[in-house]
Design goal:
By secondary structure, the chain is mainly alpha-helical. The chain is 45% helix and 10% strand.
Amino acid sequence: MAEERKPKIDLKARLGKASAGGTPSAGSGAAIPVPVPDQPPPPVGPPPGMSMGGSSPFGGGGAAIDPSNPLSAVAAPYRPPAPPQPTRIEVDESTVQQARTGARKQGLLVAAVAAVVFLGVGYVAGQASETSDGRSKSRKDAAELATDLGAAKSKLQSLAEKLDAGRNALLKERTFPSGLSKELGGINVDFDGSKLAGRRFSGFPVEVTSQLVEFVTGVQALNDRKLVLEGLLNKLEKPLTEQLKVQPGQAIVNYVVVLDKDPANNNTALLAPLVAPVTLTPQNFSLPGEFNVTNPLTGTQSKLPAYKGGDLSRTAAAVYVTPKTFDKACPSETSGQTAQLGAQLANMLRDIRGEKGAASADYVTDDKPGLLERADQLVVGLTQRVAK
């Protein structure tokens, strides 16, 4: 067997491929390969572009399948998806710092907004509470002002009664109201600006607030005028008491004329006041026999006979001065102050009781309400405020 020689196998001929020189022809003398019975035929390959790999029943892997092959979808073996791998995120420290800063700012902003909201809610609630308290105090103040106005009105009525009685005594009865000054001093209309201090006027009608200010101003002016009147009454009590003793038709002689000589021996008349006035009545117009006079130049007193006739250059005598002519030439201070006193009484009464309007062909005047009427109007307005 060692001597036996194995036949030479031509692989190119077996594969049916030509040699490097080209395809053999019959006349070329090339050998024709003879198949060897003992050699198995070569395996059939998969279609081009597709690689078949064996797979075991236990899921063993084979060769990869070309994805461009049409059969790759059915020929590819099933493989379960791989479990997700944990991912590690790398964060820069500066990014973390910026995030913390942003979160802090956002937190502060949210806190600020929340604070503003809470403050707004608290402010609204506080305003509502304050408004309620203000209205409650306003009603209380209105009630107190109405009570004070009632007391002031009572004082005004008492004051008007005293003034009216004093004016009637002075002008109608011709007697001086000696106790009027003291009575006026005991009456004080207590309604000045302090009554409005600290008051809440929430809900007050505008006209009521305006009338309150006007009433306070009017009362203050009345109190000032009352003080002036008290001083005038004290000043005029004595002279007016003597003057008012003169009844209508009577005449009070206060001055006489005395004929005298000047340094050049010229006749001159002196106007000399009497020490005691002389009263003349229509029923008894007789003069006394002599006058007790005061020399206006020296201030000395002397008695001179009433002139009955004769030569005045030889015999000294006095002639009385008719009172009306003297009052015309030299109006007395007391007579003017009497008119002033009467005017003061009338003005104060007009301020308290008001003045009725008058109508004529030339003009028309409106009614002027006094302090009493104003007080009534204010009490009505304040009572309505309390009821709200």
